[in-house]
Amino acid sequence: MALHRKIAAVGQKTSTVGRPVFLDKTQGPTKIAGRTEAQPPPCQSGRRFQFFSLTGQEISIATPIFYDTSTAVGRRVHIITFGCQMNGRDSEAMAAALENDGHRIVDDEAEADLVVVNTCSVREGAETRALGRLRQLVGQKRRRCGLLVGVAGCMAQRLGAVLFSLVPGLDFVLGTGQLDRIAAVLHRLEAGERQIVCAEPRNFLPKMRRRHGRPSAEVAISTGCPMACTYCIVPQTRGRGACRPMDDVVGEVKLLAEGGTREVVLLGQIVNFYGLRQLPTIGGKSPFVQLLERIHSVAGIERIRFLSPHPCGFREDLLRCFRDLPKLCHAVHLPLQSGSNRILRSMRRGYTKEMALSLLHRLREDYPEMSLSTDLIVGFPGEEDADFRETEQLFSEIDFDMAYIFRYSSRSGTPAAAMENQISHGTAAERQQILLQKLAETSLRRNRLFLNRTLPVLVEQFSPKNPRIAIGHSFHGKKVFFPAHGRLLGKMVSVRVDRAGVGFLGGVEET
Ligand code: SF4
Choosing a second label site near 423 at 20 to 30 A (CA), which of 18, 168, 238, 302? Predict the structure, then answer.
């Protein structure tokens, strides 16, 4: 679409395109080529052409359409995303870069002639699943002539060229720092290069977007992490931390608001560490709090959320934001990982159980309905029964609304992988079950607090299984399902809550 805007800005001649077409510079400065998708592109050398889809849109062509490629581009691309919200945002940025270059993003993998798997390295299971998917895709090359398969993201950054031996037939490897170069990599492939690795460490912060107008949009404010938790691979795959300039982030939020977005979710590995080393604290307010205040004043934005903060650096100035910034949702996801000080030290988390508990109690006392969620790891090397009981105790004490409870997964290259006293799979699974059972009780108990109440819910999407069921979030971060029509997408709707489950609320629109 950026291409469309660029051409339209010159604005000398207009034509209507009803179907996807190939644009060909050899047809002159003011003419749109007549070849449609159904016709094979000519591949004679010397002819430059580009395919892109502008179904039903008017475009203005003023200058020769010139694309720097001598072979066919214009692929149908499907992106598969594993992992966290940051990866989701990265995938969107890759999609935008590809669309900008004239490719088309397709939802149906079977329709694609380029499949990119954006990977996660946080857990071994995530890498194993991604490798399986890649092998399956490469295996399809025999019957899907011309199919290209690439791997991007954390596993690509971590393993680099090794991936070509793990997945023979793979076409390219694109690390976390190089995602905006995906279009250039594709040009190199089209020119005949094979097995391209682009994984030099570099800070990449996704700015490019595919589309405006989503009711809730994620905005990456920082990348990487300056901490050194002994089990975590992130500092190796995403670097030691960098942040976007504040004006840049606020500018993006304004654009989103103009396009119809009503909620922004600020993303960072440790979101409250934003700008700590680069930007000054002003009037006792950290750079992150300054950023929240600026985003709060953006007209059109009605809700702000952030993911994920760290207990360190969650200070008074940030606590006050929940009182002073009415658009800031009362939902905090605070990854704690363990309730044992011995294990927290071994994990190098940088806080004690007492510090974490004092913060959580403070949040609950000041804002009793605030939704609190966490991440916990069970079966960390050396975790004894007494350590686990402390975690269990902390978990019961706080009554979390939601929690993500993981069995420890060893990552080669991290200090924890070399630690003695690795815990058996069976013990870790048992501990996980204990916490999951507790979670089912606490989540239900917390959600029942909202029964028979009317909550404003931002309609973010419709259920893929039933398009008559709207899905959104309440101000307290509760996922809410209710029957609705498509016209409500992006609207703030009053929903009368009549059902509470583990991790969700159900209700009906109040008229
Ligand atoms: S805080 Fe620890 S767990 Fe979180 S990304 Fe940084 S190193 Fe990894």
Answer: 238
228 and 146 assigned to the same domain = no
Best mutation site among 84, 120, 123, 232 for ligand 1, i.e. most ligand atoms within 8 A of its Cβ?
A: 232
Check whether the bond before 358 is cis (ω within 30° of 0): no
Same domain, 258 and 347: no
Q: Which two tokens stand for residue 503?
A: 């991790």
206 within some domain: no
Check which CATH number belongs to the domain holding 477 and give it.
2.40.50.140
Among 398, 413, 448, where does a domain finish? 448
* Distance between CA atoms of residues 364 and 332, nearest Å: 11
Q: In whole angstroms, what is the distance from residue 5 CA to residue 281 CA?
A: 39
Distance 269 CA to ligand 1 centre (A): 7
Residue 267 lies in a domain: yes
Which residue is listed with tokens 């910034």? 325
More confident residue, 34 or 315: 315
Query: What 3-state class would DSSP assign to 397?
Result: helix
The 10s digit of each residue's pLDDT in 438-469 is 999 999 999 999 999 999 999 999 999 999 99
pTM: 0.81
Ligand 1 centroid to Cα of residue 123, in Å, is 13
The total number of residues written for the chain in this structure: 511
Quote the domain boundaries for residue 473.
454-509
Ligand 1 atom nearest 270 alpha carbon: 1
**What does the pLDDT look like over 158-172, one tens digit per residue?**
999 999 999 999 999
